[in-house]
Each structure stands twice: as C-alpha cells, then as structure tokens.
Amino acid sequence: MKSLEKRFQRNPEFYQKYSTTINDYINKGHAIKLSNAQTNIEAPNINYLPHHGVTNINKPGKMRVVFDAGAKFQKTCLNDNILKGPDLLNNLFSVLLKFREGKYAVISDVEQMFHQVLVNCYDQQSLRFLWRENTTQPFNDYAMRVHLFGKADSPCCANWALKRTALDHSDSFHPDVIQAVTEKFYMDDYLDSFNDLSKAKVTVKSIIQLLRKGGFHLKKWMSNSIDILNDLPSTHISLKVVNLDLAQ
C-alpha cells in the first residue's frame, strides 16, 4: 500500500482517478468501511487483498481498481483456498452460431457484472483491503461486499446469479426471453439475432426488464438495425455505433 502511495505522489492525476474509483465502490455499496469492532474480530478466513489501478486506452478518464486474489502470502493466496465451482459458461461456438442465424443482430453487455453479485457476510472477511485518502491519516480497513474480477469463484457465482434471475421469473416472461438469458450469454456479453424486427424489439425490452429484477443492467447496445436502437434510451447505446444508412 505504501508503494502504491509513492506512485500517487509522483502522479496526482493517477491518484485522483484511483480515489474516485474507490469512493464510487463505497458509494454504490460494493465496498464497506469496517468499524474498529469489525476490524478486530478474530476469524480463520480474514485476508487482505493488495490492489492496483488498470486503465484502458479506449476508456480515457476511467480506471478499474483490481484486487489481486492471487497474491501470495506465506506460499498461499485467496484463490488457493476457495472452490472455483463448475464451469457455467455457455459454449462460445454455440453462442456465435446462434448469433449468426437471424437477419437482425443485437449485442450488449452487463454493466460491472461481478459487482452486482453479493458475497455473504462471513466470506467478505476474505476480501478486506486497506485505504486512506491521504498519508496524514491512519490506514482504514475496508471489505469488498461483491465478487471480484480475478477471484476464482466469481465467474461461476455471477453466471449462476444471472441464470437464477431468469429461473426465478420464468412465469412472468415469454419462454424465448428466458431462453435468451440462459443460452445466449457468454459471461457478461449478450449476443442474439432475429428474423422478425418486431420480435427483436419486444425481446430486447423484455430482457432488460427481466435482468433488472436481478440487479443486472444491460448497456452498450449495438445492432445492425437502427430501428432497434431507436427503440432504446440513448444512454444505453454504445458510443461506437455508426449509422451507415446512406439514404439519409
């Protein structure tokens, strides 16, 4: 942590982005500050995760704070001590084939998918980390309350939660919508296609409504049909969409 703070001092802009991300985690309830009583409890699964910042050249101004569940301490790490769970990913080849079947294609992804799935309170003790706003303050203990990118069981748990959302609401939505959620996602990416434009519009809206019930939010919609995109809020559409209708 002190090594990270040295980088903050050398690069104030990096620190500002990092601090904004951490505070965003706290404000959204993805991370929680521990009280003195919570910090001082004794439990066999208490673990502290180092963290670092990752930026993407395609997303200027944004930073992801990554918690290293593979960091070794005394020859072991968090990932060595948790069950990975079964592989619940849909077969990618099957997802891509189905995506190519219809005339109207749509793709989207779940916003911060892992962070939408809570970790039970006991296991949050394994997701502790240190943070302070500046070096004049003492370190504070925090714990992540959600699943993390790079943690061995996160893909299984997030996939299970997504499909369980569809199962729990199967009586309220058309079977095609339930099938789309269970069979046409590859992790957080939704890929689908339709031969009927009206059905495409209805299905897309229904999937958005269904997943919202589980706390999952679909964003960055793209399609080869401007009609489908015009049916969605502009804030949900990918910035990479280009209108190639030369008749306009």
Indicate the topology.
Layout: H1 2-10, H2 12-27, E1 31-33, H3 36-39, E2 51-55, E3 63-67, H4 92-99, E4 104-110, E5 128-131, E6 140-144, H5 154-168, H6 175-183, E7 185-186, E8 189-194, H7 197-212, E9 218-223, H8 226-230
Antiparallel strand pairs: 1-6, 2-3, 4-8, 4-9, 5-6, 7-8
Helix pairs in contact: 1-2, 5-6, 6-7
User: Which regions are unreliable across 5 or more consecutive residues at pLDDT < 50?
Assistant: none
The helix/strand series, from N terminus to C terminus, equals: HHEHEEHEEEHHEEHEH
Shape: globular
Helix-residue proportion: 25-40%
Radius of gyration: 21 Å
Question: Given the structure, what is the number of helices?
Answer: 8
End-to-end separation in angstroms reads 55 Å
Strand content: 15-25%
Number of strands: 9
User: Which structural class best describes the helix and strand composition?
Assistant: alpha+beta
Tell me about the largest β-sheet. Answer: 4 strands, antiparallel
pLDDT averaged residue by residue: 93
List the strand order in the largest sheet.
7-8-4-9
Can you tell me about this structure?
The chain is an alpha+beta fold and 248 residues long. The chain has 8 helices and 9 strands. It has a 4-stranded antiparallel β-sheet with strand order 7-8-4-9. Strands 1-6-5 form a 3-stranded antiparallel β-sheet, with helices on one face. The protein starts with a helix and ends in an 18-residue tail after the last helix. The mean pLDDT is 93.
